[in-house]
Amino acid sequence: MLNYYYENALKVGEIKLKDVENVNFTNAYSNLMEKLENGDVGFREVIYEEDIEKYESLRGFKNVVVIGMGGSILGTVAIYRAISPFENGAYFIDNSDPEKTLSLLKNLDLNESIIYVISKSGNTLETLVNYYLIKKRIEKINNFKGKIVFITNGGKLKREAEKNNYPIYSIPENVPGRFSVFTSVGLAPLYSLGVNISEILEGAREMDKTCQNDDIFENPALLNGVIHYLYDNLGKDISVIMSYVESLKYFGGWYKQLIGESLGKNGYGITPLLSIGAKDQHSLLQLYIDGKKDKVITFMIAEKYRLDENIAFEDVNDEEIVCKYSDIIKSQQKATEISLTNNGVPNVRITIDEVNEKTMGALLYMYEMQVGFMGELYNINAYNQPAVEEEKRICWDLIKSSKKQI
Ligand SMILES: O=P(O)(O)OC[C@H]1O[C@](O)(CO)[C@@H](O)[C@@H]1O
């Protein structure tokens, strides 16, 4: 389902096997297991939730609209856009850019839509304003036939849902937003989008069993966390996901928040970046190979591409080559991996059988566990985000002062 290859990260020479063994990962492992077992942190228990019948009434709409920010939408986008990269009918309103939001709403038939308003706090500015943009349009429709569903635990949006008798799903309080993809936050809209959410949970559960192992070389989440932690301590604090599966680009958006918001505290933190192979070989590979040696590269590749065909073409010497189209990108990934390793750039590789519900569930859950372990290694709270609150206060004051000028 998912294979993790780490040898190049040790071959590069700056960290050796003994450095990995010398990290007190046993402590990190037992601390995280304790938090998960006593319910301090709930992102494991939710993947064993059996009650998916509660989503039954949420299918059958032509359009699925999701309004949310950060962890309230990024996981859903990551999974759906990986599984169905070319499908229409999904509308993700995840920013306050008027051009993006209003152009999306222009072509949207709300009567044929199920609209999710998702905000754990219920007070996120963008989600609130984007909801009102939709509300304003719905109020002009006689006999609205669509459906509005709120997924929230409180605040202004919960009060709005209660006032209008909209259905409300709650989010377990011990699951931070960026870890909430395996709760109703992700599962409800994904169910509406026709995704097999049981398979997503099955993938996460299989990865959970793999991660219940304190033998670090059998636990990809723990090992990848320790490798990134060790290299961070050596000044390689940029984590580049280089995916040779373009439909994983939205996974990159989810990864950025998970890593950035969980670990960016008390002066610590690694910087998450996403590159798409093979095309970023023509834009960033020069930097990765010959620029500052401050990065750890994580390759992502699929064993099998869902579309493929045999090709025959002539190379630059007019010699015929016959291969599968996917052999090209696989060769490019391998060549880039060899070149990076030859040039002392540490890299690891995640290979998934193919993109599907099960592998996506496993991939996202692996990173939730990895960040849990890394929070223990850095001895920080990986589950809050206090630094983002100041901007929100300043912004609300600015908006309130600006409204007099309208
Ligand atoms: O789900 P909410 O409460 O709307 O929060 C959205 C996002 O905003 C943050 O709180 C950061 O501002 C994230 O942690 C969270 O995922």
Strand content: 15-25%
Tally the helices: 15
Order of helices and strands: EHHHEHEHEHEHEHHHEHEHEEEHEHH
- Overall body shape: globular
CATH superfamily of the largest domain: Glucose-6-phosphate isomerase like protein, domain 1
Pfam families: PGI
Catalytic activity: alpha-D-glucose 6-phosphate = beta-D-fructose 6-phosphate
GO molecular function: carbohydrate derivative binding; glucose-6-phosphate isomerase activity; monosaccharide binding
GO biological process, one term: glycolytic process
Can you describe this structure?
It comes from Methanocaldococcus vulcanius (strain ATCC 700851 / DSM 12094 / M7). One of its GO terms (cellular component) is cytosol. This is Probable glucose-6-phosphate isomerase. With 406 residues, the protein is an alpha/beta fold. It has 2 domains: 216 residues, 3-Layer(aba) Sandwich (Rossmann fold), CATH 3.40.50.10490; 134 residues, 3-Layer(aba) Sandwich (Rossmann fold), CATH 3.40.50. The protein contains 15 helices and 12 strands. The protein has a 5-stranded mixed beta sheet with strand order 1-12-9-7-8, sandwiched between helices. A 5-stranded parallel beta sheet has the order 3-2-4-5-6, sandwiched between helices. The longest helix has 22 residues. The protein is globular. The N and C termini lie far apart (55 Å). Bound molecules: 6-O-phosphono-beta-D-fructofuranose (F6P). 6-O-phosphono-beta-D-fructofuranose binds next to loops.
